[in-house]
Design goal:
By secondary structure, the protein is mainly beta. It has two helices and six strands, in the order H-E-H-E-E-E-E-E. It has a two-stranded antiparallel sheet with strand order 1-2. A two-stranded antiparallel ribbon has the order 3-6. A hairpin with a 6-residue loop joins strand 4 (83-88) and strand 5 (95-101). The radius of gyration is 15 Å and the shape is globular.
Length: 122
């Protein structure tokens, strides 16, 4: 099922660290879950003075959700940097790293698929 067709995802509360040039319409957080491969969230550029740098995305489903697979798409021109997929620790006091990856500095679209051998409950 495409991400955007899931009612759980459509109702999710999405937060981001920044939006490129504060252009919410073109690069805002709504583009993360709209299912349109032509849109994207775009943060302030790496190295820019941004409160809360490094850049991040937070998704709150509002209730426990079982995650079996997560697909992240990076549009062409993405500047490679270390990325982490994190989830709150069971006690909520810190973040646990589920996956570390490094997208290429490439002009082609890149898709990172994370498959959870044990369903991840968020």
């Amino acid at each position: 099922m495409p991400l955007a067709s899931s009612s759980l995802v459509r109702q999710a509360k999405v937060r981001v660290s920044s939006v490129l040039n504060r252009d919410q319409r073109s690069f805002g957080r709504q583009n993360l879950i709209d299912g349109d491969p032509e849109t994207c969230w775009n943060s302030e550029q790496v190295g820019a003075v941004v409160s809360g740098s490094p850049q991040w995305i937070s998704v709150d489903f509002g209730r426990p959700a079982v995650l079996k697979e997560l697909r992240l798409t990076f549009q062409g021109g993405f500047v490679g940097c270390d990325c982490e997929l994190q989830t709150p620790a069971a006690d909520g006091s810190q973040w646990d790293v589920l996956e570390r990856f490094y997208p290429e500095d490439s002009n082609s679209t890149q898709i990172r698929t994370v498959i959870f051998t044990d369903p991840c409950i968020l």
